[in-house]
Amino acid sequence: MKIQFGRRFWIAATAAIVVFTVFMVGRNALHAVKIKRQINLLTREQAYYTEKIGQDSALLERLKYDDYLEEYARENYRMQRRNEHVYIMKE
After folding, report:
1. What whole-number distance in Å separates Cα of residue 22 and Cα of residue 13?
2. Rounded percentage of the chain residues whose pLDDT exceeds 70
3. Are 63 and 72 contacting, i.e. CB atoms less than 8 angstroms apart?
């Protein structure tokens, strides 16, 4: 006894394979787009932090000198020497 598959069976099988393939490719394409966005975000963050590291390294290098250290403390932390009065005037 030989089983014969009709034309409808082959059309349905082909349609099922096409739908499955489109679903898998589409799903993988969406996943690839999400990953690409994450990569772009992480690349921007890397550039930002690399620049920040450069700025902080330059600041640390300058803070090794006492003159700049005193200037930095006065400007950023409002420190002053003993027996000295500092007045802050806002414009």
Report:
1. 14
2. 97
3. yes
